[in-house]
Amino acid sequence: MRVSGVLILFLSVFLVKLNAQTKQDQVLFTIDNKPVYTSEFLRVYNKNLDLVQDESQKEVDNYLELFINYKLKLKEAHALGFDTNPSYLRELSSYKKQLANSFMKETKVTDALVEEAYERISFDVNANHILVKLAETASPKDTLAAFNKISELRDRALKEGFEKVRQEVHNGQTVYGEKLGYFSGFKMVYDFETVAFNTPVGDISKPFRTRFGYHIVNVLDKRESRGERTVAHIMLVDNNNNTEKAEVKIQDIYQKLKQGEDFEALAKQFSDDKSTSSNGGKLAPIVGGQLRSQEFEDVAFSLENIGDFSQPFKSAYGWHIVKLYNAKPTPEFETIKPELINKVKRDDRSKLIDEALIAKLKKHYRIASTPDLSYFESILNDSYFTKTWFLPPSFIGKKNLVVIGKRSFSYKHFADYLMKSQRNPTAKASFKTIVNNVYNNFLNENLIRYHENNLEDENEEFANIVGEYRDGLLLFDLMENTIWNAASNDTLAVKEYFESHKANYISNEKIDAVVASSSNKKALKKVAKWFEKGYDVEKIKPLVNSEDKIEVLFSTGVLEKTHQTLPENLPFNVGVSKILSHNNSYVVVKIKEVLPKKQLEFVEAKGAVISDYQQQKEINWVNGLHEKYEVDIDEKVLQEVKNKIKNN
């Protein structure tokens, strides 16, 4: 089983890798002539100074010894081939990919979109729209026709009134004219939402395009968000098989509610909404603009106090009485921010984040324009749409198409990508459009892949973190195989170690006792008397404590002198102690038996023995590494390092 990244980074606390040293950087020491530079040691020392709890290790000489031992272990890990183990390489690759994701985000764009999203969920917009449908892959001719049509409708709407035109042109096939009601952020596609929120109340927007076609929007109202409501309802509808009118019956039910009868019980018995009646009429939480019935929503949000219920009212679905269960305002930004980040990443907004990253990478790798793709347009034919297209025998593959960083991509690279793109459903479009779209995808994917693969060379912070993880993971594998597993599995050697170090495994003096603790000294005086009389704990508890108030806490068992419930000055004598101060409180202790020190058996001390054996085995092993590899410290440079640390 592999270890967590947290543990690996902890194990690598003494290492921060540098990608390159400056000309002024000095060699502090060498291991078999391989240099380790002062800059690396200083960075490691300064970074980890606050993490080192042993004050002696903060001394430069002691810290240098730890650092050299760490470097020796890493050299041995490489010598033994741990860096080529498939499991090690898989885990390192997985970690790098996961870490790269956080380094390849456009955080400024994301933050701006999250703040914008919060602003929009804080308001509701009431709008109507007219849509001229248009496929995303429409030809230039059809696109122009749709744009001209929506422009014509806007001109009419400005002169004749939006609502008149909306009703006249709606045919539900090529032109839609819809009343949308109130909606908030994330309820519409992002492009539509943006225009609706940015158009002043009373205005008609200019034509704009979404993936559905061309729209114009008439904004009727904008209000602060109503927050969230949890309500239940009783609904009655007129039934031809029932002579009793729903309006009459709903009034009778309302009267029963005013008389104090249970809302949930009446909903279960009488509500015609079978999807909620079994649950006492309770609905899932709702927000403004979510429901199709404006009448229902207005009543639900008009209730002010939890438990209030409305008068009977009618909607398009029937007669209702609504009861309020919970009311939540729009949460504070910091509270809802994590949820908004996830929504933004799943929403159309994520395209803006991706586009910002691509734009940044194009600038970084100096990709200014699209190359000439006319050759690829010329070799395409209609078989592409039936997924049977192949490259012609005369295809020119070696010619360079685009360069990203230090890598060139040839015509053949793009042609292979173009071949694979046949697998995706493709509406008929011009070969020029197809080639350009496929090239953009090809370029974007390779920009991201190249950047991810070269992050270590291009981002020092990323390189340092990966370096820590790489060597920490390597060190863990080495220690696990060389020390930890060996110590755990070598039972005979561990027992021999125990036999030769028995004096280290003697139990401390202990007491079998009852400890009574309280801030009330008078209560403990009573407990002490009952201890003297031989009362057991269960008999004493009800004499000092009640269900309403706990005056004294009791602890029982075999306790060492260092146990947290015992004061330091407690004499280990059989009997009842004096009342002693302890942690701003008082204790009295009844000692039943004093258990003297004794030699532990191997089974009793096994955990401590294995730990000590591992430490000794590691010491011997590290000493062997010092003999195996030559370490040469430049004392002059070391003194300069000490002076630099002292002056800082």
TrEMBL record:
Residues 122-221, 226-326 form the PpiC domain. This is Peptidylprolyl isomerase. Keywords: Isomerase, Rotamase. It comes from the Bacteria. Its EC number is 5.2.1.8. Coiled coil: none annotated. The lineage of its organism: Bacteria, Pseudomonadati, Bacteroidota, Flavobacteriia, Flavobacteriales. GO terms for molecular function: peptidyl-prolyl cis-trans isomerase activity. Signal peptide: none annotated. InterPro entries: PPIase_dom_sf (IPR046357), PPIase_PpiC (IPR000297), PrsA_foldase (IPR050245). The keyword tRNA processing does not apply.
